[in-house]
Amino acid sequence: MPDRNYICYAQNRTVLKKLYIQNYAIIDEIEIDFSQKLNIITGETGAGKSILMGALSLILGDRVDTAVLQSRDKKCYVEGIFVIAEKKAVKAFLREQDLDIDEELVIRREIGSNGKSRAFVNDTPVNLEQLRQLSAMLVDLHRQFDTLELGESDFQRQVLDALAGHTDVVQQYQGSYTQWQQAQHELSALQQQKDQFTKEYDYNKFLFDELHDAGLKENELEEADATLKLLSNAEGIKTTLSKVTYELGEGESPMVQQLKSLCHQLSAYSDHHTALPALLQRLQSAQIELQDIADEVERINDQVQYDPQKIEQLNDRISTGYKLLKKHGVHTTQELLAIQDGLEQKLQAVLNIDEAIQAKEKAVQQLLQKATDLAAKLTANRVKQVKPLQDKVNKLLAQVGMPNARLQVDVKPLANLQISGHDDIEFLFDANKSNRFEPIRKVASGGELSRLMLCIKSLVAQSLDLPTLIFDEIDTGISGEAAKQVGIIMKDLARKRQVLSITHQPQIAGKADAHYFVYKEIKGNSIKTNIRLLSQDERITAIAKMLSGEKPTAAALENAREMVMN
After folding, report:
1. CB within 8 A of 553, min separation 6: which ones?
2. Is 0.70 surpassed by the pTM of this model?
3. Is residue 73 classed as helix, strand or coil in its secondary structure?
4. Is 108 helix (H, G, I), strand (E, B) or coil?
5. Count: domains in the chain
């Protein structure tokens, strides 16, 4: 179960609670429980401090070097347990990647004897890119010559924004910028649509005019086809109808008259048999129905007329309609009328789209103006922070043993608005008062740049949501008062976030909340690296040795005691 006190202390920050390493380089097996505040790691040169950082880098997503496998018959394991508490960004990432979410996060890297590695987050396999993205939210590792983040424009901008304290303006700007970009996209789509409409307009107009001139009415072709069949067979139909009319009412023995006569004969006996009235009624109904049929046939016969002119007109009409049906690949008049309506809408759209484009252009301009105004406010706020940042960092640089080093912040306008604003921000560095400032990303001077990063991050630590900070030999090239100042800055930085640092300087080691000592020991026929947490008395002795050698003097011990107690 997670340590509840540990989690409450961590609150909204990440903390590396435990690191477990097995079979890595000359490490057989070690387990380190870290403090939530300032963790200092010391040890003699070659004892294996850098090996610890190499192992840690594996769970941060670094690639594997099979040379680190101590024993080829066993896997290498590196496991880190992080307390993430209410860290929203980390939980959002885990949710997006469909990874389990808990108050503790376990990251494990396994390297097989064949050199193949696997990574796991809460026992779920992940790839290296996922591991790198996640670890960047958990740990900020600074090694010598590792100044990538410091040289990144995003981080440099975040520093100025943190000092300006204008999160609300940043959010307003980014919202306006996103709306402007969306409106730009919609305008571009409308313009492309207009181009397409324009290309198709003449052809659509021709098709529409052709259908419109045809003047087809609903079901016209189907009805014309039926009428044509009737007229084409008019003579035969008329002859047959005449014959039917004759046989029903005018022949030598007309059917209607015969039925009438039969009814008359049967009615004379209808009173003498109970079944006869019903039969008589049915015969009378048949006579009436047959008479009605005869009248209808005669009426139809009178209507049917052979009309050659009408037939010619219908043939022309149907011919025109069938050509249109074939041209448009449809089968009914209704489908042709639907195509005509669609073409009319497309032609109308060409007329309407200019209005839509004008309206969208106006909206785009308004959103651009709003975003530009907010970007100008961001720029003004950032520029206000340039001199204070330079002055504070340069003062801190002098304190940490870099009196000739200078930071210069260059803010220039970008050609176009970006999601971050209208500013191209570049941190420039001059290590020797040469007045030749170069972009930090082009400068590589190991510990000096790590100290520069420490100075900058100490200024923005309260505003930026920084992860666990790890400094690997940040003290290179300094001692005395400068080292003491580095220790003070680290101690202050560790009040709000976890800090780990490998150091050779007693002044820094004296500031530790937890002091770990890396050493080599002989196990069997091999030399192994191990680490242990020092007690207060052991800390005093270790720091005294850092001050005066393997056999510390009484003065060194007293000096070390003062460092630890203070």
Report:
1. 544
2. no
3. coil
4. strand
5. 3
